[in-house]
Amino acid sequence: MSGQLYTPPEHNKSAFHCPSCQAYANQMWGEALSSFNSSGLQNIVGVSFADCTHCRNRSIWVGGKLIYPASSLAPPPNPDLPEEIFDDYEEASRIVGDSPRGAAALLRLCVQKLCKHLGEPGKNINADIASLVKKGLNPIVQKSLDVVRVVGNEAVHPGTIDLNDEPDTAIALFNLVNIITEAMITQPKMIESLYDKLPTEKRNQIDQRDL
Ligand SMILES: [Zn+2]
User: How far is the CA of 78 from the centre of ligand 1 (A)?
Assistant: First the structure.
């Protein structure tokens, strides 16, 4: 995902990335009302709605938690995320609301598979990252890989970060996986296709120059 950073849906927030249309849009909040009873129209305590001003769809919140549409705290995956990683990413998206720890562990697996996709053995992420660094890996991408690796490790081993206390940390990892995909897959693909459109003569001159 490029452009604006993902803003997850949050209770009573005036704008966020809509769980229905994925656009960053203003949200109109309202409380759920029950039918009339002897004391008049009553609020159903703890139930609220947000209407998206972009797609007009409604999200439903109970006790400050998004319950519909489901699984939408995480940003959508970069469309260039390799197919063999897509399912793990989607599963992490579905569970992050209930188990940030489980999501972080799955995202660590995504990074392990991304290293393999980039030509590394994919058995030991630490060694794979070191090998990518030797091949000239962009330091920002290296740091993104290391953050997902370290936080993902904390999820499966007793550590110092309590992920379930801080869902924001797990949500940030989704952004990092998308940043890695953007830098390592989307951008090279786009640049190669532009380069291929240069006249053959110009490309030959460049090849000669670089000998
Ligand atoms: Zn919307």
Answer: 19
Residue 185 CB partners (closer than 8 Å, separation 6+): 78, 80, 81, 82, 117
What is the rounded radius of gyration, in angstroms, for the C-alpha atoms of the chain?
22
CA of 25 to the centre of ligand 1 (A): 7
Q: pLDDT (tens digit, 9 = 90+) per residue, 133-157?
A: 998 899 999 999 999 999 898 888 8
Instruction: Spell out which residues have Cβ within 5 A of ligand 1, the ion.
Output: 18, 20-21, 52, 54-55
Rounded distance between C-alpha atoms, residue 99 and residue 162, angstroms: 11
